Amino acid sequence: MDIILITTVIASLFLVIGVAEPLATRLRLPYSVILAILGVLIAAGATFFLRTSLTDALNPVAMAILGLPIRSNVFLYVLLPTLLFQATLEMNLRRMLDDWMPILVLAVVAVIVATVTVGYALSLTSALPLAACLLVGAIVSTTDPSAVVSIFRSISAPQRLARIIEGESLLNDAAAIALFGVFMSFVMLGVPEPTLAEALGRFPVLIAGGVAAGYAVARAAVWGMSLFGNHERAQITMSIAVPYLAYVVAEQGLQASGVIAVVTAGLTMNLTGPGRLRPQTWTSMMEVWNLLSHWAGALIFILAALLIPRLLEEVRIGDFALIGVVIVAAVAARAVVLFGLLPLLTRLRLSPVVERPYRAAILWGGLRGAVTLALALAVTESIRVPVEVKRVVGILATGFTVFTLIVQGSTLRHVIGWLGLDRLSPLDDALSRQVVAVALQTVREDVARTTENYDLSRDIVRSEAKRFGERLDTAVDEAEASVNILDRDRITLGLIALAGHERDTILNRVRERTISVRMADRVLLDADQLIEGARAGGRSGYQRAARRTLAYSRGFQLRVALQRRLGITGPLARVTADRFELLLSQRLILRDLGAFIEGRIRRIHGRRVADLLHELLSRRIEAADAALDGLRLQYPGYAEELERRFIRRTALRLEEREYIAMREDGLIGAEVYAALQNDVAARRSRAEDRPRLDIDLQRSDLVRQFPLFKDLDDAALTRLGQALQTAYVNAGDIVVPHGSPAGSVYFIASGAVEIEAANAPLRLGRGEMFGQLAVLTRRPRRAQVRAIAPSTLLVLDEARFHKLLAASTALQNAVRASAEKRGVDPTDLIPAQVSPVTATGPR
């Protein structure tokens, strides 16, 4: 075919793609549906022009359209990886973990159920072999991510609904295409009735190989991109290769699922990339991928739509009945999972509740699109598939796709409206009014400053100010007097606004490099959880989310166990350093929120709500300080290094700001500005390197690290080490209950504890002891001791402690100091005649 004609046709398709989006907005139809309709009309028009003699002059154009070299590999190897990779890069993975069970059920279980249901329904109603029927089931199980996600975004569906649909439509493509590969091989090998065990037996191999390939390629790419920190275009260019390399390595190298490899590569880069690349580079890369995905999604739809007339040209009357069977079986299988399995999992407390309207929307939102047509095209292209099987598979897949796009896609917006999912809840409606009131107050202040700067006419300023003031008063009145908004809802609105401002502050700090790239994703996730917690549970939900931001995760406990049991310290050191930096970042953010409460929330919700928010904020600050104090006591030198690093990075940010201001004022030229910026970038790169945290404590060093035992000789230290018992406690554990009998003294080898005394809490860290006063006074313990960090304690019984006390002057001095701090007379604890004549230590 003439290359000029092909180029002209492709350029024309881009024009159609450009026109389709505003047309979809005007007609209030999903973008993907418009693309599909336009593609079918173009193909049908080209066929008509080619077959009629009235327009022979257009025959070359019609032949060019119908003769485009559209093969299944164009979809699977060129366009689909782009679409899947961009979707995984943009996903908020940690938020999706909140709904991981329904997403996994819909993405895997629903695909298997639909494949089996459609396969056996066709087997009972058609002459196709079971393998071919199951192949059709696998093809029509793929909900198209571009079709579904674009529709839900265009109608502003609830975030959770869009999140579940997006996760399902993305991951079930991988599962369905893997099953397609299994059944396709059975059809080509001539296996008429494969067992389900045979099919599912190959499924894990395809998944495991795809995961391995995608992870390896993405990690290698992130490592390579991190080497070129000052070359943004090089990094973005390298990212373009990742999905294609992952797909080819999996498909051709490991004989595994390329789709799963691409999804895994995207997930891996999503999790590791933001911590290794500069924020501006990551933002620019996402912009490039968004544009590539937009083009790929549109092309994959319109090219697939061009195939529809070709795939349906041999349709027979009996085929329509089979298309009806596929539609009924696929919808029924999806309904069984949504209205049968998911509620059962919820009752068993294995899955969060998915409300009935959400499930109904998910059922009707299971659109099929270009992926289904591409798989059907792959079947029709194979020379090893029987001719009749190719014909029926192409017709059934195409017919079902047309039904979902035209019928479901065009009515989905109305279904969402009928279910009431497109309307704001009373709380969201009140929140929108609050946003308007706050925004208008800010606008009034900015406009006032602007009019002063430009010295405008006073009459005009006064007139416009009066007009704007009336609008502002109305907005504030509506925000304050929202119908059916109770006091607790006002508190919820205030908490949502506070958490939203916290998120905005974090973003500003990330842009200013005050918060490191490594921590950006984590602190933003915490802010999102605060917003969702406040929205779902009000004050209690906000407090639960705030506690989770400080809690030690199960992963942290696993790393602690690795360090204690096996001596593997690397994972624990990394996660402890992350926690250190997270707490420092959180403390910086929290201390800036009080001004927002006073400046914005008090003006809208009143003094009582503002005072309550101040109280909740104070509790968060106290909890963060307590957690940070625990780490400071545990690793005092490391805390100092992190604070020095923060000061250096803040100074660099301020220095860079000064250079930008001088450049804008014309005080320095472009050459000088570039040189200064390069110097700042080099120093910032060095400042980004976080100091290494060493937490490795050998058994022989546990005793020697204590200043309390510094005057004991080696033999005494050895005997003491044998006498001491090691105890491990997690943060929040009660080490010594109130009122418990005295019997042991505790020495803190690592970690920190808090003595909850009646007058004021006392925090102790590494190298300090507790429990000695109760032992020496022989009274029950009057204070409760709680660990505020994962801690390693050395425990000494009462008899050995008395012997050690008699042998160590340093220990005697420490006991006297602790007694004076607690208001106890030291002479009541250590008799004057006790003198360390020989440092023999406990026996």
Rg (C-alpha, Å): 34 Å
CATH topology of the largest domain: Na+/H+ antiporter like fold
Q: What composes the largest sheet?
A: 4 strands, antiparallel
The number of strands is: 8
Helix content: over 70%
- The low-pLDDT segments are 832-843
SS class: mainly alpha
Mean pLDDT: 76
What is the CATH domain class of the largest domain? Mainly Alpha
CATH architecture of the largest domain: Up-down Bundle
Number of helices: 31
Strand order of the main beta sheet, please? 1-8-3-6
- The percent range for strand residues is under 5%
Shape from CA axes? globular
In whole angstroms, how far apart are the ends?
96 Å
Tally of distinct domains: 4
SSE blueprint and pairings:
Blueprint: H1 3-27, H2 31-51, H3 59-66, H4 72-90, H5 93-96, H6 100-125, H7 130-139, H8 145-154, H9 159-189, H10 196-226, H11 232-253, H12 258-276, H13 279-312, H14 317-347, H15 356-364, H16 370-381, H17 387-418, H18 426-454, H19 458-480, H20 487-511, H21 517-550, H22 554-566, H23 570-590, H24 593-634, H25 636-664, H26 670-688, H27 699-704, H28 714-723, E1 725-729, E2 734-736, E3 744-750, E4 753-756, E5 762-764, E6 769-770, H29 772-777, E7 784-787, E8 791-797, H30 798-807, H31 809-821
Antiparallel strand pairs: 1-8, 2-7, 3-6, 3-8, 4-5, 4-7
Helix pairs in contact: 1-2, 2-3, 2-13, 2-17, 4-11, 4-12, 4-13, 4-16, 6-7, 6-9, 6-14, 7-9, 7-17, 8-9, 9-10, 9-12, 10-11, 10-12, 11-12, 11-13, 13-16, 14-15, 14-17, 16-17, 18-19, 18-20, 20-21, 20-24, 21-23, 21-24, 22-23, 23-24, 24-25, 25-26
